[in-house]
Amino acid sequence: MGSISGKKIRSYIVEHLDPELGPWSTLEYRSIAQDSAKAGVRFFLSSVPTVMSLPPELRDLESLTIEHRSVEKLFQEDKGRVCLLDPAATVELSPEDGTKFDVFLFGGILGDDPPRDRTSELRKKGFSGRRLGPIQMTTDTAVRVTRMVVEQKVPLKDIPYVDYPELHIDENESTEMPFRYVKDADGSPCMPEGMVDLIKADSEKGFGDLL
Ligand code: SAM
């Protein structure tokens, strides 16, 4: 864990587990990188295949470090520093976890409905797990909530949420997002820039193809 003027600098790692890095993941990862810079934390995207060409939106982002090695390899001698955010964990994340761990690990997995528990791929590696409540969040939301708990010391139960928001595609059609989001100041779900437009465009293709 590094420190600047006595402030601990924690690392947030998303282990990319999907075979591709499509537009949804791109918007989520870019948003995590931008927010990490504002919060003064480090953001790593690990297990990025060397042959994968990064989308332009993720290239040259100062606040994003691309790591081709897996988190298991990076922390094989140091697993105790790592907290896996795991929907199946039995202990909820608390502000005190910011003193127990300095690395917070997330599955780089697009949400699915019903959830397929692909976070188990990381659980099997033996990292300590913490849950962020009973409802599935998008990866950027899970990182946002973890930062609020660990960096700002806000207990999970005091964070305002919007569950399963309905997005209006046009005047006749709407779609329900099967996730929990943080509620922003005007009561809307906090989503990466460009995500609502992407959802609207993709909803014409059929939501089932995306999950
Ligand atoms: N359906 C998923 C699965 O297969 O495990 C959940 C994927 S979720 C979109 C992406 C990541 O966000 C998870 O791997 C986990 O690290 C984190 N996450 C999402 N909701 C969570 C929750 N309620 N508690 C803990 N972690 C969560």
TrEMBL record:
<dbReference type="Pfam" id="PF04252">
    <property type="entry name" value="SFM1-like"/>
</dbReference>
<dbReference type="GO" id="GO:0035241">
    <property type="term" value="F:protein-arginine omega-N monomethyltransferase activity"/>
</dbReference>
<dbReference type="InterPro" id="IPR007364">
    <property type="entry name" value="SFM1-like"/>
</dbReference>
<protein>
    <recommendedName>
        <fullName>DUF431 domain-containing protein</fullName>
    </recommendedName>
</protein>
